[in-house]
Specification:
Aldehyde Dehydrogenase, Chain A, domain 2, alpha/beta, 40% helix, Aldehyde Dehydrogenase, Chain A, domain 1, single chain, 2 domains
Length: 499
């Protein structure tokens, strides 16, 4: 039977929802050692939400000790690959079975439409765990070439205890990007989710244990960055930090790794991705790609196409088409409304930051074409309408800074050479795109663009077979694909001499 989702349906479901905010350590929920909690304010309406454990270094110590014990005992890494695969596939199925619950938790935390949480975030989280579960019994070691009297086995072995620190914009998806390959490789994990978005992570951990994952292999510690994230990054018994977040915090993580045990670091950081449209492009397709690429998830996407480079001769036509797509297809609304395509920003402080960046941009001369204003203030929530600024230059703050809101900066260009220079004139290198019917130009441009992912005549298309990550100050290390396994492993050579 197909469920008809209405606002009343979700409001009713909310009344029966359990908001578990304690840490999950060694297979059990635990209060913070201090007993302290903090309140998560709901982005959709500004009302108090869940009470969460306000963790500190003592809680990190307990979680790391649990993870280390699980790893040292071999209770997971020495388990038969077929059994490990079965457990991870069961975990993926439990995520799907609890999809509505997880979607509600995600939406309460981050303010995105609940149907997006259900149909995108929950689905991709489960798919990620399944993808790496299915990979477990398909990973091989190597035999290196040697002389006739020796054999050299090259083994890929897990690192040990992984500290994962994940952001608030796509919590379940990015958690799966870290947890799937790290656990499939045989490691134990301590996850510190963003303090704004901890509920789904806690539930994922309890579902993992229900699926059969041994206690201690996956632990969750909630709290603020300085109080819980920093101790995790500095911990002397953590072998690696996998971090997704801002470039500013990424620099701190690298410093903490150097100050402690020279632990490994993988960073997926910010972006200011250029989407380049030439005058020969299909402008309808480009307009749709620009609008969805920039405004989806209220612009809170690291690789959002927030920098539009458009050939001057078609700028006005393209902006008009982008406005039409935005107003007809990308409805902003309360996250429980089935018609809502985008919802609230994560918190009041972030909304004020975005509005401040918009005001600063206008003072520099950025010209508003439409939108980019606070709306729905009567709800108590944090909403900004999608908007576009035109006739900008690449040195303006709105064109250079990662705004993390639904704001597009349109910059005109005249030649292909100018477009490529502008596209690469950024500290970031996460993603980009080019729209043109000239395939020679498309391939020249995609090769010349310094970014981890480049799309041709589309935007934000991917699957788990393709790696994701950036160049320059967008970080290093890759999530997704078989290559993600590599960063959670090391190579061990075992040389056997005969005679």
């Amino acid at each position: 039977m197909t469920t008809t989702y209405t606002r009343d349906y979700w409001e009713s479901a909310l009344s029966g929802l359990t908001l578990e905010g304690r840490n999950f350590i060694d297979g059990h929920h635990r209060d913070a050692v201090s007993g302290e909690t903090f309140t998560r304010i709901r982005p959709m309406d500004g009302r108090p939400g869940a009470q969460l454990a306000r963790s500190s270094a003592a809680d990190i110590d307990a979680a790391v000790a649990s993870a280390r014990h699980a790893f040292a005992s071999g209770v997971w890494r020495h388990k038969d690959p077929a059994e490990k695969k079965r457990i991870m596939l069961r975990w993926a199925e439990l995520i799907r079975a609890h999809g509505e619950e997880l979607a509600m938790l995600e939406t309460l935390d981050v303010g995105k439409p609940v149907l997006a949480s259900l149909n995108v975030d929950v689905r991709l989280c489960a798919d990620g765990i399944q993808y790496y579960g299915e990979m477990i019994d398909k990973l091989y070691d190597e035999i290196a070439p040697t002389g006739p009297n020796a054999r050299a086995l090259v083994r890929k072995v897990p690192l040990g205890v992984i500290g994962a620190i994940t952001p608030w914009n796509y919590p379940m998806i990015i958690d799966a990007w870290k947890l799937g390959p790290a656990i499939a490789a045989g490691n134990s994990v301590v996850l510190k989710p963003a303090e704004q978005s901890s509920l789904s992570a806690i539930r994922l951990a309890s579902l993992a244990v229900e699926a059969g994952l041994p206690a201690g292999v996956f632990n969750v510690v909630t709290g603020h960055g300085e109080e819980a994230g920093k101790p995790l990054a500095l911990h002397m018994d953590v072998d690696m930090i996998a971090f997704t977040g801002s470039t500013e915090v990424g620099r701190l993580i690298m410093g903490y790794a150097a100050q402690s045990n020279v632990k490994r670091v993988a960073l997926e950081l910010g972006g200011k991705s250029p989407l380049v449209v030439f005058e020969d492009a299909d402008l309808d397709a480009a307009a749709s790609a620009v609008a969805w690429g920039c405004f989806y998830n209220s612009g809170e996407t690291c690789h959002a196409s927030t920098r539009l480079l458009v050939q001057r001769s078609v700028q006005d036509r393209l902006i008009a088409k982008i406005e039409a797509v935005t107003k007809s297809d990308i409805a902003l609304g309360h996250p429980f409304e089935p018609s809502a395509q985008i919802g609230a920003l994560i918190e009041e402080a972030h909304m004020e930051k975005v509005l401040g960046m918009i005001a600063a941009g206008e003072k520099e001369g950025a010209k508003r074409a439409f939108g980019a204003e606070q709306v729905m203030s009567e709800t108590g929530g944090y909403y900004i309408s999608p908007g576009v600024f035109v006739d900008m230059t690449n040195d303006m703050s709105l064109a250079r800074q990662e705004i993390f809101g639904p704001v597009l900066a349109a910059i005109p260009f005249d030649t292909e050479e100018e477009a490529l220079r502008l596209a690469n004139d950024t500290i970031y290198g996460l993603a980009g795109a080019v729209f043109t019917t000239d395939m020679g130009r498309a391939h020249r441009f995609s090769e010349g663009l310094h970014a981890g992912t480049v799309w041709i005549n589309t935007y934000d298309m991917s699957n788990f077979a393709t790696p994701f990550g950036g160049f320059k100050q967008s970080g290093f290390g890759r999530d997704r694909s078989v290559h993600a396994i590599d960063k959670y492993c090391d190579y061990k050579t075992i040389w056997q001499q005969f005679g």
